[in-house]
Amino acid sequence: MTKKILFVCVENAGRSQMAEAFFKKFMPKGFEVISAGTKPSDKVNPIVLQAMNEIGIDMKNQTPKTISQQIISESEKAVNMGCIDQESCPALFLKDVLDWQIPDPKGKPIEQVREIRDQIKSKVMDLIKSFEE
Question: Where does the Phosphotyrosine protein phosphatase I domain start and stop, copy by copy (predicted)?
Answer without folding.
Answer: 3-130
